[in-house]
Every structure is written in structure tokens, then in C-alpha cells.
Design brief:
3 strands; single chain; mainly alpha; 2 domains
Length: 458
């Protein structure tokens, strides 16, 4: 018994020494930020621009007309081609809500955070690369690969975010998180720029638009896989792999760990309060981003080229916005910087409702959104990282991730209902101010100092 305690003490000491030696290490931090650079290609090229329209066109081509409605069938289930991508997104988000907390608990117990991040990043990148082979009647395979890729994307992000408290001290996390988001916007924007150019000029280089889209989709997977290797070579495991108790496996241990966390959640009221506030205001942010292109196309009659240019501009301006809000956070604190960003977000909805009428105004509004987008997301992540109990990083960041993704349907629902009932897309945009006002009301009373103190009572 004495020998085992001694060995455990030595392992803990070595782990602590390793963490102390590596924290704020510039090489490791750079490697960590490069994962944002790597995986953002999936969000921009695949999720935002190319995959949805491409799969919809394939499904339309494969559809048959039944009672005047075009339908495709998957396992005997009738699906409208225009709804197929939305269903895939919903399924992948539902799987994330189901699995991410369990994966986080397994990661925290086993100390396999890096290995699990590598597994899911590689799986997601390979699934994305395989989208190149989706042609003709294989529209269903494209949906399956996207579900696998998006689930893997969310899982890897949980372990990636959980590294933030390990690689940076509290006073450096706002800056490090901002650098990560900045690198993500820059990397995702650069590949998207190349892909849009390839698509627009595909006929001049002798390839059809379908092949250009498939090349673009595959390039996102290759980009993700290639640049994530920089991260995997730079990040260090923080503790040795933990052995399983006799008669247990990682699934049962993960369930037990998760059950224990839920039983102790009452000990972290300020952290949970912040998580609820984030859930609300981030839903507003994601909805504004999601419906802005529809607003531009339908309300302002902007063409695809203009909208693509604005999407690219947002990527690059957001790079500077993430750094700008890092500087603001240094002066006023991360929480107050987030509050400033939410006031700007609320102002954006008012401006879009009453003053947005031209393409040039839309460009200007896009630039403003880009400035607050990177900052509000980066600082939200770094602030939450300070409120997490040591040893529970992946588990708590799994809750953070599903707070972002699991409720992302509510904002679009509000927008859609208001637009449908009133017949006004402008009122639909204005209705989103509720998320920013309510988010502010919930965020302002959060006591960051007490949340940090609560998280240290382990």
C-alpha cells in the first residue's frame, strides 16, 4: 500500500512538473493555434459554402415527382431534396449532444485527451476528403460523410479547447484563445479564397463545376489533416495514461464520471450561470451569421458573387477583430469586452432592420460583424476556461460545445416564425435582439472571481 501511494505521488509530481515546465511555451501555443487554422477549412469550405448546394443539386437530380412534390428516398423515408442537408446537420448535432459529454468524461478520466483529439481529427479529415467521391446517385453518401465529419469535428474541438488551461496561465488565456480564433479565420479564409477562385474559373482551366466543387470539398479534408500534424507534434500529454479499475471499461467509467459531475454541478453555480448566458447570446450570434446571406440575397437582391466576396471579407476582418478584442480585454477584462461585443451585436440587428438598404451598407455591416465575431467567440472560450475544475476540462468543454451547437436551432426558429407571421425578414432580424439583451441580462451578474474560486475547490 505504501509503495503504491509513493508511486502515485511520484507520477503526480512528474505530471505537475511537466505541466509547469510547458505552460506558456511559445512553440506549444503556436501548435495549438494551428489546429484552428487546420479545422476551419471544414467550417468555411464545406459547411458554409459548397457542400449544401452541391448535395441539394444531386438530390434534386435523383428525385422523383410524387403528388406534385420532388422526393428522394433513403431507407424508404421520403425526403425533400432541399431539406436533406438540414436533416444531416440536425442528426450530427443530435449525435454531438448525445456523445460529447461522455467522450469528455472518458478523456478526463483516462488522460487520453491528445490521443482522442488525434483520432477524431483524423477521422473527420478523412471523411471530408472522401466527399470527393460523392457524385450522381451517391447524394446519401455525402450526407453520411458530413454527419461523420461534423460529429468528429465537434469531438476534436472539445479536446482542443480542453488544452487551453494546460498550455496557458489565466493571465495569458484571453490572448492565446484570441490567437487561435484569428488563425482559424485566416486559415479558413485563405483556403476558401483559393476554392472560390477555382470554382469561378473552372471552365477556363477545362474542368466542370461539379468536379471543381468535389476538389474543393476534398481540399478541406486534406488541409485539415495536413496542418493538424503541426498541432499533434507540438502538444504534449499532461499525464500518463490512467489504468482502468478491475472489471471496468472506458464506457462504464465515462458514464460513472459523468454521473458524478452531474451530482456535483450544484457546487459550480457561477460557472453554470455563465454557461446559460453563453447558450443564449451565442444562439443569437450563430443565427445572425446563418441568416445574413439569405437576408442579403432576398431583401437586398445581392448576387452570389457579392455574397461570396462578403463571406471572404468577414473571414479576414475577423482575424483582426480577434486581436482587437484581445487588446480590449486587457484593458477592461474579458467579461466586459464580451459585454461590449453584445451591445454591438444588438446594434447590428437594429441597423439591419431600419437602415440597411444597399450592397455597400451590407459590406460595411459585414465588416462590423467580423470585428466582433472573432472577439466575442475567443473571449467567451477563454473566460469559460478559467471557471473549470482542474481535471474536468474536456468534460466541461463538452457542455460548452453542446451549448453552442445543441440549441442552435432556437434562434433560426424565432427568425423563421417572425418572418413567416409578419412577412418581413427585417422584423425577423430585429427579433434576434432578444438573444443579445437576454444574454446581457444573464451575463452581467456573473461573478467571475467567485466562479474561479468555486472551480478550485476540488
Amino acid at each position: 500500500m505504501t509503495s503504491r501511494r509513493s508511486n502515485n505521488h511520484q507520477e503526480d509530481s512528474l505530471s505537475t512538473l511537466s505541466s509547469t515546465r510547458l505552460i506558456n511555451d511559445k512553440r506549444e501555443i503556436f501548435g495549438w493555434t494551428m489546429y484552428d487554422w487546420a479545422n476551419s477549412a471544414f467550417s468555411t469550405t464545406v459547411g458554409t459554402v459548397f457542400l449544401g448546394p452541391y448535395l441539394t443539386s444531386l438530390a434534386n437530380a435523383a428525385a422523383t415527382v410524387v403528388d406534385g412534390q420532388k422526393l428522394v428516398y433513403l431507407l424508404g423515408i421520403p425526403i425533400a431534396p432541399g431539406s436533406f442537408m438540414a436533416y444531416c446537420v440536425s442528426i450530427s448535432v443530435g449525435l454531438q449532444v448525445l456523445f460529447l459529454p461522455l467522450l469528455g468524461a472518458i478523456s478526463d478520466y483516462s488522460n487520453l485527451r491528445k490521443a482522442m483529439m488525434m483520432l477524431f481529427a483524423t477521422l473527420g479529415a478523412i471523411a471530408t476528403t472522401c466527399l470527393f467521391f460523392v457524385t450522381g446517385g451517391l447524394w446519401w453518401l455525402g450526407g453520411l460523410l458530413f454527419i461523420l465529419g461534423n460529429l468528429s469535428f465537434g469531438a476534436a474541438i472539445v479536446f482542443y479547447n480542453a488544452y487551453l488551461p494546460d498550455i496557458a496561465t489565466e493571465d495569458q488565456r484571453d490572448s492565446v484563445s484570441s490567437r487561435g480564433f484569428a488563425m482559424g479565420y485566416l486559415g479558413g479564409g485563405l483556403l476558401l479564397l483559393v476554392n472560390i477562385v477555382l470554382f469561378l474559373f473552372s471552365d477556363r482551366i477545362g474542368i466542370d463545376s461539379s468536379l471543381a466543387v468535389r476538389i474543393n470539398l476534398a481540399s478541406a479534408g486534406i488541409w485539415w489533416l495536413l496542418f493538424s500534424q503541426v498541432t499533434f507534434r507540438s502538444l504534449h500529454p499532461r499525464a500518463a495514461m490512467r489504468a482502468l479499475p478491475p472489471g471496468k471499461n472506458y464506457l462504464t467509467v465515462g458514464i460513472s464520471q459523468l454521473r458524478q459531475t452531474f451530482s456535483e454541478i450544484k457546487h459550480y453555480p457561477h460557472t453554470i450561470h455563465y454557461l446559460i448566458a453563453y447558450l443564449v447570446f451565442n444562439d443569437g450570434i450563430q443565427t445572425v451569421i446563418g441568416v445574413s446571406s439569405v437576408f442579403g440575397a432576398e431583401e437586398l437582391k445581392l448576387d452570389v458573387g457579392t455574397l461570396s466576396g462578403i463571406i471572404l471579407m468577414v473571414q479576414f476582418v475577423a482575424y483582426f477583430g480577434a486581436h482587437l478584442f484581445d487588446h480590449i480585454a486587457r484593458r477592461v477584462g474579458a467579461k466586459n469586452a464580451i459585454i461590449i461585443s453584445l451591445v454591438v451585436w444588438a446594434t447590428v440587428t437594429i441597423y439591419a432592420y431600419g437602415f440597411l438598404f444597399t450592397g455597400s451598407q451590407f459590406w460595411l455591416l459585414g465588416a462590423v460583424i467580423a470585428l466582433v465575431l472573432g472577439g466575442s467567440q475567443a473571449l467567451s472560450r477563454s473566460l469559460f476556461s478559467k471557471m473549470i475544475p482542474p481535471g474536468r476540462e474536456a468534460e466541461f468543454f463538452s457542455f460548452y460545445e453542446i451549448s453552442e451547437r445543441g440549441t442552435s436551432w432556437f434562434g433560426p426558429l424565432v427568425f423563421g416564425l417572425v418572418n413567416q407571421i409578419t412577412g418581413s425578414m427585417r422584423l425577423g432580424i430585429l427579433s434576434l435582439i432578444v438573444f443579445f439583451v437576454l444574454g446581457l441580462i444573464l451575463l452581467i451578474p456573473v461573478n467571475v472571481k467567485k466562479a474561479i474560486e468555486e472551480s478550485q475547490r476540488v
